[in-house]
Amino acid sequence: MGHQQITSKEGLALVEKVRKLAMRLPEVAEQVDAFGHISFRVNDKPFVMMGEGRDDGPTLSIKTLPTTQEYLLAQEHFYKTPYIGQHGWVSIVGENVTDWNAIESYLIEGYLRSAPKRLAKLVQAT
């Protein structure tokens, strides 16, 4: 993704919004990886990553199902995440996020793809 750790005001605001959504899920941990991306993980598997360093601002990347990825890539602002897009990851520049309810559902989908079955069952039951 070619990013650095998030330090801009816009980027930190994006992180805070995503953090509030991701940390509601069971056993989620926040981590800064070797590339400076902030990631939210379950069972040490990332389902959301964020970074900045691109000219167009901070970005949000989410692990999705292949069918969801296909749907999102047909939308105006989503694009296949470099290097990991073949695994269902999609990205969007933070300023283009307008529907936080949809983002929340994609975060949950990513969580369910990464979580062990016992945790996935807890989330699916609610």
Q: What do you see in this structure?
A:
The longest helix has 15 residues. This protein has 126 residues and is α+β, with helices and mostly antiparallel strands. It is built from four helices and six strands, in the order αββββαββαα. The protein has a single domain, classed as Aspartate Aminotransferase, domain 1 (Alpha-Beta Complex), CATH 3.90.1150.30. The chain starts with 8 loop residues before the first helix and ends with a helix. Strands 1-2-3-4-6-5 form a six-stranded antiparallel beta sheet. The mean pLDDT is 93. This is MmcQ/YjbR family DNA-binding protein.
Q: Short summary of the structure?
A:
It contains four helices and six strands; from the N terminus they run αββββαββαα. The protein is an alpha+beta fold and 126 residues long.
Say how many strands there are.
6
Strand order of the largest sheet: 1-2-3-4-6-5
Mean pLDDT: 93
Counting structural domains, the number is 1
Order of helices and strands: HEEEEHEEHH
Which bin fits the share of residues in helices?
Answer: 25-40%
Count of alpha/pi helices: 4
Biggest beta-sheet profile: 6 strands, antiparallel
Question: So what's the CATH class?
Answer: Alpha Beta
> How widely separated are the two ends?
34 Å
Q: Low-confidence segments, ≥5 residues, pLDDT <50? A: none
The chain-level structural class is alpha+beta
Which second-level CATH architecture applies?
Alpha-Beta Complex
Named CATH topology: Aspartate Aminotransferase, domain 1
Radius of gyration: 13 Å
Taken from the alpha-carbon principal axes, the silhouette is globular
